[in-house]
Amino acid sequence: MRIISGKYKGRRINPPKNLPVRPTTDMCKEALFNVLNNYFNFTGLRVLDLFAGTGSISYEFASRGSEAITSVDGDMGCVNFIKKTAKEFDLDITPIKSDVFKFLEKNKGTYDVIFADPPYDMEQKDFEKIIELIFENNLLDDEGILIVEHSKYTKLDHMNHFSFEKSYGGSVFTFFEFEFDEEETESSEEE
After folding, report:
1. What are the residue ranges spanned by the domains of the chain?
2. What whole-number distance in Å separates Cα of residue 175 and Cα of residue 156?
3. Phi and psi of 167, rounded to 5°?
4. CA 121/CA 61 separation, integer angstroms
């Protein structure tokens, strides 16, 4: 695994083999950040990385200048690895060991980018619950974007705030934004 762009471009990261993860491939990361380049100047972005695993996505944001990155994972091995790597590269990443659903219910922060990469075999209703909790608890900035990575067998384009999706092999990134809230569009048309 390597960092694909920014200050630490080309740096290799070697997570222990025993972590329960499925890291986002370099090809998918490159495609994702090509999309995000059209939305953001990364400097100073507040980023929430859910189901952070090895921290691969967090490192990409940090390498590009994002300064307030929170990485949440339920596995202590993953959290310790992110902590160690962030210290080694002097990255502003705060790893938190927590069940993601509990974290989303209790957290009061707002973020410019929220990235969620749950296990691909997680139930459809749980994917939907992640999206619902983020919007219900106002965790996403008004101009922010939520990205959920999932397999091609999970469908999220029916959810509120759906914007678009991009497929790369068996992986799909589905994007959500406030401006794509159909209810708001319908109510403003009625006025």
Report:
1. 57-190
2. 9
3. -110, 140
4. 26
